[in-house]
Amino acid sequence: MHMADALISPAVGGAMWAATAGLVSYSAKKLQKDLDERKVPLMGVLGAFVFATQMINFTIPGTGSSGHLGGGLLLAILLGPYAAFLTIASILTIQALFFADGGLLALGANIFNLGFFPCFIAYPLLYKPLVGEKCSQSRIFLGAILAAIIGLQLGALGVVLETFFSGISELPFTAFLILMQPIHLAIGIVEGLITATVVWFIQKESPEILQRVAASQPFGNISMKRLLTGLLFVAIVTAGSLSWFASEYPDGLEWSIAKTSGEEELAAPAGIHSVFTEIQEKIAFLPDYNFKQTEETATAESQASSSWPAVDSGTSVAGITGSLFTLLLAGLIGKGLQVAAKRL
Amino acid sequence: MIKIESNWLDLRYLDDLAAQDTAICRINPCVKLLTTLILILVVTSFPKYEIAGILPLLFYPIILMNLGALPAKPLLKRLLLAAPFVICIGIFNPLLDHTPVTQIGTFSISGGWLSFISITLRFILTVLAALILVATTGIDAICFALLRLYVPKVLVVQLLFMYRYIHVLLEEFLRTIQAYTLRSFHGEGLRFKVWGALVGQLLMRTIDRAQRIYQAMLCRGFDGEFRLIRTSRLRSQDMMYLLGWSAFFLAARLYNIPEFLGMLLMGGFR
After folding, report:
1. Cα dihedral A243, B133, A101, A72 sign
2. With b meaning 16 or more CB within 10 Å and e meaning fewer, what string describes A170-209?
3. Looking at beta carbons, which residues of chain A come within 8 Å of B200?
4. Predicted complex ipTM exceeds 0.85
5. d(CA B198, CA B200)
6. pLDDT in tens, B226-259
7. Number of residue pairs across A and B with CB atoms under 8 Å?
8. How confident is the model at residue A261 (pLDDT cuts 50, 70, 90)?
C-alpha cells in the first residue's frame, strides 16, 4: 500500500523527500565506484521485470485471495543494495506518475518505506549474514522469509508514523498500528516465500548470477551508523524548518495554539507573518470581520476542550455560498474552454 | 481483460496523449513539473478541516484538461481505481471525530465529515495533477526536467531504460500468461507452484535479455558514459505560466477565495 498525498502534510512529505534524496545521491555515488558496467542495463531490465511481475497475481490456496510480488528483497538479492534502491525508486516513480499509485509528495516517503528498509536493513543485516555464500534451500527460505517479514514490518511502521505525524487522518496511532502490522506480517511471510522460490529457482538454474552479488563488499558498520545519523539530522532539520514555515499562515495551527493556550493570535513570529497580516488587513474588504471574531472566540473558548477553532456560522454560510459559486465558475470555465476549442 | 493487459494499455494511452501538439504540451517540462509540485505542496499544506479554500484550486485541472485536450473519462477512471485506499483510511475520520464544528441552520456537522471531504478533495487534486503532468509531458520530457533539477544521472538513466523495457516485458509476459491460460483448466487463477516456475523462467529470460542488450550497447560503442541530449528553451510564455499559476496557488492558500466571493454575493443581495 503506497501512501497517498491526501493523507500527508508538507512537513512530513518534505522530510521524507530529504531523506530519500540523500539516499539516492549516496547510492548513485556508490554505484559510480562499482566498475561493473553490465549493471546498468540489468538494473533497467530488472526494474521492468519487477514492475511487470507485480501485475501477475497468484491465488493463495485456502483463502480465495490473490497475492503478488513486492520485489524489494528480490532486487536487493540480485543487484546489491545500492542498485536495488535506485531500481525500486524508479519503479515507484513510474507507478506514482502513470497509475496514481501513491502521490508525488508522498513518493519520497514511499521510496523510503519500500526501498530503504528492504535494501539497507533487511538485506544486509538479515538475508546476507544468513545466506551469504552457502546457498542451501533451507537457508535461502529462512533468510528470505525473515528478511521480508522484518522489512515489511518496518515499512508498515513507517507508513503509520508518517500518517500519524501528518495529522490529516484521525486514526489513532495504536489503532492504526494494530491494523497494519498483522496484515503486513502475513504479507511478509508470503513475500518471503515467493522471493525464496524465485531465488532458489535461479540458484538451481544458474548460480553464478547470485554468486557475484554475494561476494561483493559487505556493509561496514561504521558507514551504516554515519549514514543513519546523517539521515536523521537531515530529516529533523527539514521537518522543523518546513513546519515553522507552515505555521506562519494565519489559521489552523495558530488557532489551535490560541485555543489551547489562550494566547492572542497576533503574538506571532515576526518577519513574514506580520507583513502578510498587514497586507491582508489593508486589502480585505471587511478587515474586522475575521479578526475580531478570532479574538472573541479565542478568549471565550480558551477553556474549551475541543482542539479545533469553531468556524463562525456567519463565515460558513458565506463560505458555502462562495464555494458553490466557485464550483459553478469552474464548471462554466471548463465548458467555455471546450466550446472555444471546438470553434477554433 | 486481465490486469496486465489493461495496465499496459493505460501506459501506452497516457504516452499517446503526451505526444499531442497542444499549447500545454509545448510548455517547458521543468516549468510543468515545478507547477505540479507547487500545487501539491499548497494543497497538502491546508489545515485539516479546510474545504472552501481548496475549491478554487480545481481550476487548475479543469483548465489544463481543456487546453491539453485530455479526455476526462480515462483520467477519472484512474482516479476511481486509486481511490479505495484513501477512502478506507479517510472514512475513519467521521467515525472517530465527533466534535461539532459548524451549524447550517439546525444541522450540526461534525469535524470528522469536514476532514473526510477535505481528504477527498486533496486526493482528487493531487492525483489529477500527477496524471495531467504525465499526459501533457511524457516520460522523456519529465526525465529531462529531472536532470535539470539535479537528480543524479544514474536514476534518470534508470528511469528511461526501465520505461523503454516495460513495454517489451509486458508484451512478453502477456503472451506467456495467455499461453498458460489457454492450456490450463483453472481459469485465470495461477496456482502458486506454477507461478513460481513461470516467474523463475521469465526472470532467466530477462537476465539473458539484459546480457544481449549490454552486448548490443558495446557493439554500438558504449563506453560507460550515458549522453542525454535534449534542447529546450525557457520562453516568456513558460515563465508566465509558472508565475501565473504559482501566484494563483499562493493567493488561494492565503485568502479564502470562495468566502470572499460569498460575502460579495451576500452583500450584493442586501
Report:
1. negative
2. bbeeeebbeebeeebeebbebbbbbbbbbbbbbbeeeeeb
3. 197-198, 201-202, 205
4. yes
5. 5
6. 777 777 788 888 999 999 999 999 999 888 888 8
7. 347
8. low
Q: Which of B81, B95, B96 is nearest to B131 (CA)?
A: B81
B23 touches chain A (CB under 8 A): no
Going A252 to B33 to B13 to A96, the CA torsion angle's sign is negative
Give the integer Cα–Cα distance in Å for A88 and A75. 8
Q: How far apart are CA A51 and CA B169, in angstroms?
A: 9
Place of cell 507507478: A95
Residue labelled with grid coordinates 537457508: A139
* Residues B113/B115/B116/B119 CA torsion (nearest 10 deg): 160
| C-alpha grid cell, residue A181 | 502490522
B106 secondary structure, DSSP code:
T
One-letter amino acid of B246:
S
Cβ contact (<8 Å) for B168 and A51?
A: no
Note whether B44 and B122 are within 8 A (CB): yes
- Tens digits of residue pLDDT in A204-234: 887 877 777 766 654 444 455 565 566 566 6
Identify the H or E element spanning B108: strand B107-110
In Å, how far is B78's CA from the nearest CA of chain A?
7
User: What type of residue is A321?
Assistant: T
- Which of A29-43, A122-136, A185-199 shows the highest mean pLDDT? A185-199
Beta-bridge mates of residue A66:
A59
